[in-house]
Design a protein that fits this description.
- The chain has one domain: NADH Oxidase (3-Layer(aba) Sandwich), CATH 3.40.109.10.
- The longest helix has 20 residues.
- A hairpin with a 4-residue loop joins β3 and β4.
- The chain is of the alpha+beta class.
- The mean pLDDT is about 90.
- The structure holds flavin mononucleotide.
- The site of flavin mononucleotide has 8 residues, from loops.
Length: about 250
Amino acid sequence: MKYKNFNRDILKSDFEEGWNRWPSDSNKGVPMPPAQKSCESSERINLVDPHDFKFEVKLQDAVKNRRSRRKFTQEHLTLEELSFLLWATQGVTDKDVGAHRTAPSASARHPFETYIVVRRVKDLKPGIYRYLPLDHKLYLVSTDAARMARVATSCFEVNGPQMKDAAVVFIWTAVPYRCEWRAGPYAYKLIALDAGHVCQNLYLAVEAMHAGTCAIASYDQNVVDKIIDVNGQDEFTVYLAPVGKI
Ligand SMILES: Cc1cc2nc3c(=O)[nH]c(=O)nc-3n(C[C@H](O)[C@H](O)[C@H](O)COP(=O)(O)O)c2cc1C
């Protein structure tokens, strides 16, 4: 089988003196793009302070027991648990600037937005939400039942069961310019590397609440982009992860 657009060079770091010599917008003095996408309305949903969540699993056990889980019960997550998962994956850990988060990111560019499709979370109505890491709040994107229903089949038949039964589905998009602004053509390698850290944090965090997740890179690009209403150029889906109790 022939690979389309397969480019091994994207994985290399074959520059000699780092990005400072690359004519990126950052080196040309173009202002830094915002760390968080703006919202159409000012309505926000409060989340629980992540420090209120008691992580009672030893880190060694969380690391050792982590597995990709594809079978979930019909139990609900609590809002406290969901708040912790959002913070653990993209939460801001400096003074609301957004440079330092729970996951590392090359040049602190943090090129992702986090969308969640909420099906079963206590005290949160089902819907599609976007996480606002700078505020540790949620923004309601849509409660359209038809859009939400399409999530179950958006990752092909092979991923059907875990997508259908998840209490919450995480969808991470990339906003490539955040990283292109700094790293030019090296941005794509960095975005791919950064995404792995985010999802690994989710794998570890779910261990604390008898829940599981499964990284999903096999999905229908157009369908998922439409569900969350992103344009597929300036922002597009790169990774998904269904979460549920096990
Ligand atoms: C980048 C990446 C993409 C993945 N995509 C999928 C996927 O689309 N569907 C799926 O069922 N599992 C997917 N997985 C999960 C892997 O199949 C799983 O990590 C692997 O089988 C090892 O199992 P473990 O995670 O339980 O150790 C993916 C994992 C990674 C890291």
